[in-house]
Amino acid sequence: MNFKEISEQIAQKLQTIHKFWDGKESILEMKEAGYPHWKQMEWIGFYFQFICEKNLRCFMDIPGPKYGNVQFDAFKHIPWDFKAHAMNTSSHQIIVNDSEATANGIRQYNAVGLILALGKVQYNDEDRKFQAWHESIKGKISEYTIHRIKRGAWSRIRKVSFELKQIAFIKIRDETLIKCGAFQQDFRNANGSPRRSKVLLDLEKIDEELEYCIEF
């Protein structure tokens, strides 16, 4: 079975998911299901992962293979990751998985796959009501927020909704890694240890890798 055939089968199981994701409703849905990432500020990516796990669990192995401390989201003939990205931004770049883990997955299976949800994000949280609501249901201020306040850093405006437009199936091979960059390369953590680099995909450079797409 080739990549496109697998993608078509996965797409059939995602075809009926709802296309408008309200932030509050999505977070509460994850919370009520006991999903561990419902507290995360970047809820859209985790909600798509939640949807994929719920709809694909009987078709794919979830989670996928692990390389060191890095685990792929799923496995079906090759390792797969689930990601979401806003179309209405100036950036065409997507931070994917750990560079070394991705290279190891390609080495073992000849490719890794990316299932990418693309849509329009609404922010509209200038009054911080959504942020305040999210913090209130967490029960306490997160460690991230505590450290941000200590650093005197700005609090980012939250995304309040996401309108799904496309789900793209992208095949990542050695050739892809060669023409794409890396994120966090030469970066260091607060304790001085080096951060692991991640694959940085540029959507404008990967036409050959886009194997299949469904529209909403």
Explain this structure to me?
The chain has 216 residues and is of the alpha+beta class. The protein has helices at residues 3-14, 23-32, 43-56, 99-109, 129-138, 143-151, 174-179; strands spanning 20-22, 66-67, 70-71, 74-76, 78-86, 93-98, 112-122, 161-172, 181-183, 198-202, 210-215. The protein has a domain at 3-90 and 98-123 and 159-173 and 207-215. It has 7 helices and 11 strands. Strands 1, 4, 5, 7, 8 and 11 form a 6-stranded mixed beta sheet that branches. β4 (74-76) and β5 (78-86) form a beta hairpin. The longest helix has 14 residues, at 43-56. The two termini are 26 Å apart. The model is unreliable at 184-194 (pLDDT under 50).
Q: What keyword list fits this structure?
A:
216 residues; alpha+beta; 6-stranded mixed β-sheet; globular
Assembly form of the protein = single chain
Secondary structure tally, helices: 7
Strand fraction equals 25-35%
- In round numbers, the mean pLDDT is 87
Q: What general outline do the C-alpha atoms trace?
A: globular
Major sheet characteristics: 6 strands, mixed
* First-to-last CA distance: 26 Å
The helix-and-strand class reads alpha+beta
β-strand number: 11
| Cα-atom radius of gyration | 18 Å
* Helix-strand pattern: HEHHEEEEEHEHHEHEEE
Binned, the helix content reads: 25-40%
What's the topology here?
Elements: H1 3-14, E1 20-22, H2 23-32, H3 43-56, E2 66-67, E3 70-71, E4 74-76, E5 78-86, E6 93-98, H4 99-109, E7 112-122, H5 129-138, H6 143-151, E8 161-172, H7 174-179, E9 181-183, E10 198-202, E11 210-215
Parallel strand pairs: 5-7
Antiparallel strand pairs: 1-8, 2-3, 4-5, 6-10, 7-8, 8-11, 9-10
